[in-house]
């Protein structure tokens, strides 16, 4: 068989300090994984099981963030990003971290107005989450270099002003638990990426803003809104 047209290129993370790249298969995102953020979004974190949605692999970018069309309320969400080099089904929590290749700092950019409209109508809200270039990230840092970050600062500044601030130990569902839970529903594969949720303080950005995200032990992400 012959392709009707050339297939789209595979999205890839650069690996910090290496010429290797990490090809991306899927991008999973967990919602409301910090209690304070769940509360600011109007939910009770004590009554909610974990839930996931997806971004498209080609949403991942490494550079400036273009303000998207059809929205006047685009918001930032700083996150720890997990990249898997091993897959499986029904992965035990005790061995789940063995599947992780490395970590990055990422932004789950959100068209909040479009997401809100979809929620009110009871519709899926990918239009607010999985849009072009909606996941600015840093290169991956291998586990062999930094281990598995489980505590430490996670924050975001906009134009030098702190907007989000938390600690990785405040995640409701830890990295190993997320991997294990996801593997019950889908067979995870090498190349899968998990965005692990955001602390409280999400808010809007404007063209010209400079976002500076940080995750302790992983690195810093600098993104200009264009």
From TrEMBL:
Indicate whether Metal-binding appears among the record's keywords: yes
Q: Could you tell me which InterPro entries the record lists for this protein? A: Fumarylacetoacetase-like_C, Fumarylacetoacetase_C_sf
Q: Which UniProt keywords apply?
A: Hydrolase, Metal-binding, Pyruvate
According to the entry, every stretch annotated as the Fumarylacetoacetase-like C-terminal domain falls at: 27-226
Q: Name one GO molecular function term.
A: acetylpyruvate hydrolase activity
Q: Name one Pfam family in it.
A: FAA_hydrolase
Q: Organism source for this protein?
A: Roseicyclus mahoneyensis
Identify this protein by name.
Answer: Fumarylpyruvate hydrolase
Task: Give the range the annotation lists for the signal sequence.
Answer: none
